[in-house]
Amino acid sequence: MAASALPLALFRRGKVRDVYTVDEDRLLLVATDRVSAFDVVMGEAIPRKGAVLTQLTAWWLRKLEPQVQHHMLTAEIAEIIREVPSLRDHERELAGRAMLCRRSVVFPVECVVRGYLSGSAWKEYRERGTLAGEALAGGLMESDRLDPPIFSPATKADEGHDQNITIAAMREAIGDRWAEELVTRSREVYEAGRAIAAPRGIIIADTKFEFGLVGAGNSRRRGSAGSVILVDEVLTPDSSRFWPADKYRPGYPQPSFDKQPLRDHLEREKAAGRWDGNYPPPKLPIHVIEATTSRYLDIYHRLTGSPLSNPIQ
């Protein structure tokens, strides 16, 4: 599924998810098979990707309930149809990729937690000795573990490039109280997640979370009441960098269970001068699409212990 068309009001269409209004308290999130890299949506879809994102998020949210409140009401299609009967004719296309959620006011920041120095963080550190504009210790190598993990927020963008910002800028945007709570909760969820992933042979090198506010008028004003909940996708191959622990070697790039085949292909296209990093993207070869699908299915199986075709418990 590259795009959905449901008999509900479209709330917004993001890079990957189509979000629909169910009523004033609930939203339906539909993860399509669209894929973005370097903040550009590709022209081709990645088969089964949307189901991996939704079902892996559902699995994580159940695991993380002791640590954090979240927005998921159900990701089971039978329950969704019971709650929203108008979707009955769309049951087959939505199965596995739809999630019924509590509505919240989403904070306009992405909460990035980095446990290892990789990707854009390594590039910034190598060039300037900083991460999100703040100085790090000298002498670090690519893929080094960061203790404690570093929180580095970014602005949210449905289109175009996300921008790293400082924690000070985050405080200015949402207020000290909410900034402190988002930093604390992001660290807690990351630590809980990597403790769950470790015995499964997976390193969560970095990830990004989003949070929303429910209750008390859903106001983000400084000092206002309300409860923070975890929203959107959680610890998926789209939002995280997963590494196999048995192949970890600091000082080098690491193999990863995410859309790295896609990133590698696009980097080669950039290096060859065939793509400038902006829209429109280059056409994806079938072998890149298949390799990316394989990575998504593999990390799902490794984390949950079940292939995607089986219902998760």
Order of SSEs: EEEEEHEHHEEEHEEEEHHEEEHH
User: Which range does the strand content fall in?
Assistant: 15-25%
CATH homology superfamily name of the largest domain: ATP-grasp fold, B domain
Describe the sheet with the most strands: 7 strands, antiparallel
Helix content: 25-40%
**General form:** globular
Number of helical elements = 8
How much is the radius of gyration in Å? 19 Å
What is the name of the CATH architecture of the largest domain? 2-Layer Sandwich
Point out poorly predicted stretches.
Answer: none
Q: How many E strands?
A: 16
Q: Indicate how many domains the architecture comprises.
A: 2
Task: Give a quick set of tags describing it.
single chain; 313 residues; alpha+beta; Phosphorylase Kinase, domain 1; D-amino Acid Aminotransferase, Chain A, domain 1; 7-stranded antiparallel beta sheet; 5-stranded antiparallel beta sheet; 8 helices; 16 strands; globular
Describe this structure in words.
With 313 residues, the chain is α+β, with helices and mostly antiparallel strands. The protein has two domains: 9-103, Phosphorylase Kinase, domain 1 (2-Layer Sandwich), CATH 3.30.200; 106-247, 2-Layer Sandwich (D-amino Acid Aminotransferase, Chain A, domain 1), CATH 3.30.470. It has helices at residues 49-64, 77-83, 91-94, 119-128, 167-174, 176-197, 260-271, 286-304; strands spanning 9-13, 17-23, 26-31, 36-37, 40-41, 72-74, 98-102, 105-106, 109-116, 130-131, 134-135, 145-151, 154-155, 202-214, 227-231, 240-244. Strands 8, 9, 12, 13, 14, 15 and 16 form a seven-stranded antiparallel β-sheet that branches. A hairpin with a 2-residue loop joins strand 10 and strand 11. The model has no long low-confidence stretch (mean pLDDT 92).
